[in-house]
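Figure 3 (text version): structure tokens given as input.
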């Protein structure tokens, strides 16, 4: 199964110089938990999550309109291509401990987003199929890796 079969096409985006309340508005209106940050050519330059916005507001004591997306976005963004296999995308998620992957084309321009939720829904739909393209076990392995807690030294903790 390929990423293009499960990904969401044309996700809402924001710019690094947008005020943080713009990202919050997208979260609310699109009912999503992350927004890819793009430049003028639709290249992914970052990603911001609802948690990033909340933690920035809390730790800085500023209103969202007083901060830019750039001040809280992650710039180390892991992506995949629409022609990648779901297994490959899950390996990227597990290795980098991320729940969502922006999907880019050959010019590195954003074309969609793939979430662990998308993969889990496919596994649920295929739960009783003899030759499921995505299994509950694969989803559980990815979820476990993505949500594993770390010690302060950076070593994964087992709880």
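Below: residues designed for each position.
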């Amino acid at each position: 199964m390929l990423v293009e079969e499960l990904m969401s096409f044309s996700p809402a985006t924001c710019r690094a110089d947008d005020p943080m309340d713009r990202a919050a508005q997208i979260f609310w209106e699109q009912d999503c938990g992350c927004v890819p940050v793009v430049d003028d050519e639709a290249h992914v330059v970052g990603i911001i999550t609802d948690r990033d916005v909340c933690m920035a507001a809390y730790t800085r004591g500023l209103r969202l309109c007083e901060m830019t997306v750039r001040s809280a976005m992650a710039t180390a963004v892991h992506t995949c291509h629409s022609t990648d296999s779901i297994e490959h995308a899950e390996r990227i998620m597990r290795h980098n401990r991320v729940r969502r992957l922006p999907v880019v084309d050959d010019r590195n321009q954003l074309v969609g987003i793939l979430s662990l939720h998308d993969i889990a829904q496919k596994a649920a739909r295929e739960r009783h199929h003899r030759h499921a393209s995505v299994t509950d076990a694969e989803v559980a392995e990815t979820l476990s890796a993505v949500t594993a807690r770390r010690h302060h030294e950076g070593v994964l903790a087992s709880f």
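The first helix runs from residue 20 to 30.
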